[in-house]
Amino acid sequence: MNKNQLQQHDREHLLHPFTDFHDLGQQGTRVITSAEGAYITDIDGHQMLDGMSGLWCCNLGYSRREITEAIYEQLNKLPFYNSFFQCTTVPAIELADLLSEVTPAHMNNVFFTGSGSEANDTNLRIIRRYWDLKEQPEKRIVISRLNGYHGSTIGGASLGGMSGMHKQFQKLDYIEHIQQPYWFGEGGDMSPEEFGVYAARCLEEKILQLGPENVAAFIAEPIQGAGGVIIPPETYWPEVKKILDHYDILFVMDEVIFGFGRTGQWFGADYYGVKPDLMTFAKAVTNGYFPLGGTMVSDRVAEVIKSKGGEFTHGYTYSAHPAACAAGLATLNILRDEKIIDNVREVTAPYLAKRWAELADHPIVGEARSLGLVGALELVKDKGSRARFDDKCTAGGVCRDLSIKNGLVMRATGDTMIIAPPLIITTAQVDELVEKAHRALDDTARALA
Ligand SMILES: *Cc1c(COP(=O)(O)O)cnc(C)c1O
């Protein structure tokens, strides 16, 4: 099929995730056909620096044959077997071992799933099981944050704080949402430090309002990814940590984006010095090459759910899929053996921070923030008042399209442009990324004038 035919068949038969089907039908899809290193190429031969690592997953880029071969070899040896009914497979055990090693010291058990959404559903099941076994069944409510993202199953989407999603289904009623730590958008006249403490205290206020005896858990991403790379003020996590330590509630860190090196530490929990009871992972664990997710379970929780008898009535056909685990093993071995995370922390993240900050001088940029290998630009019409170009935040979409035209994949969340390039990006490629982003901003300013 040629490009037009492919787009025609796509329009007729393929329903895309998070998509306005009608609009997409009019515009036609971009057909991506190949990738190499940090670059992707479409069917027209247009090459783009992939500033989003696929969808926050291809942290090692697209050319790691070791992962492909590990999957291939495993598929030839034992393409599938389940881990129900007293059975297990070698790659599943080896990956569980390796995860116990690279995750924080107090986390030594893993429950595998096929995705991040399924892992957050698993968390809901573990949380309830834990409090039931502790004979505190009244602890039911899970607190989450507005504009957080925790996946798209009913459980994941209920935990998430995306109002557009909640409008389209019935949210689970035992989940409550609080203020997000988004200083640029919601900080008003407070300094970032004041606002960080304020946003953290919203958690305490909610706990007290619901009664700590009714609160089972708090879930959060270290930095909100899909919400627009919302990096909390420095005062936020230390204050949240104090609150979490004070009340007897479980803490779930959703590391689906920030796990495996994106901050320059193995996990967001390491970066912020917090101690989760459960830790969701997915995406980069296999470098995006094979679907795999899971949740790391702390010793505190594992002790209860493992030592008390009774079946945990939960699991998926593809929990601990051997080929997925082989992909995970190959990926984590590369991350560790090639010291990729050290290089992010010591070389590329500081370099990106310096170059990305220069974009704050652009006339339509209200803020340029970055941490590790993520970055965001707030597009504004007026820097002083932070006024957007319009109420519907359409500038982001314009900028995204112009960025792609300029050979850089950036994503738009409303009028916030975001990047999360592969961890293997070089400093020369960071220069290329920033130059292309600058050009996209110039073109956007011209298009919106
Ligand atoms: C992507 C994402 C999920 C959901 O993962 P899926 O594999 O798409 O189900 C959950 N949490 C966060 C923070 C994510 O970014």
From TrEMBL:
Entry's Gene Ontology molecular function annotations: transaminase activity
Keywords: Aminotransferase, Pyridoxal phosphate, Transferase
One Pfam family matching this protein: Aminotran_3
InterPro entries: Aminotrans_3 (IPR005814), Aminotrans_3_PPA_site (IPR049704), PyrdxlP-dep_Trfase (IPR015424), PyrdxlP-dep_Trfase_major (IPR015421), PyrdxlP-dep_Trfase_small (IPR015422)
The protein's required cofactors: pyridoxal 5'-phosphate
Database matches in Gene3D superfamilies: Aspartate Aminotransferase, domain 1 (3.90.1150.10), Type I PLP-dependent aspartate aminotransferase-like (Major domain) (3.40.640.10)
PANTHER family, alphabetized: AMINOTRANSFERASE (PTHR43094), AMINOTRANSFERASE CLASS-III (PTHR43094:SF1)
Record-stated family: Belongs to the class-III pyridoxal-phosphate-dependent aminotransferase family.
Name assigned to this protein: Aspartate aminotransferase family protein
Organism, scientific name: Microbulbifer bruguierae
